[in-house]
Amino acid sequence: MKLKQPRCQYSAEFKLEAVQQVILHQQRVVDVARSLGMDISTRGKWVHQYKAEKRGVTPVGGCRIMPDTERITQCLL
């Protein structure tokens, strides 16, 4: 019987930092994921979620990536 590994919980700040490495610094998702020892699909989901939040779509049942202060600033611009 294979034991299930516990899920890692990452803070919104960590997720945002990781996503910004891909978006702002134009690094590949695979490279950022490897450098942090993470699954590539997890990082890809974060990038997709971040882009959706920038368009105003809120995640269902999930943790937001963009901090409230960034959302407020974005609305003011």
Q: Summarize this, please?
A:
With 77 residues, the protein is mainly α. The protein has helices at residues 12-23, 29-35, 40-54, 68-76. The longest helix is centred in the middle third of the chain and has 15 residues, at 40-54.
Model description:
With 77 residues, the chain is mainly α. It has one domain. The model has no long low-confidence stretch (mean pLDDT 77). The protein has 4 helices and no strands.
Instruction: State which percent range the strand residues make up.
Output: under 5%
How many separate domains? 1
Number of helical runs? 4
Assign an overall shape. Answer: globular
The oligomeric state is single chain
Structural class: mainly alpha
The total count of strands amounts to 0
- SSE order: HHHH
Radius of gyration: 14 Å
Mean pLDDT rating? 77
Largest sheet: none
Low-confidence stretches: none
What percent of the residues sit in helical stretches (DSSP H or I)? 55-70%
**Separation of termini?**
54 Å
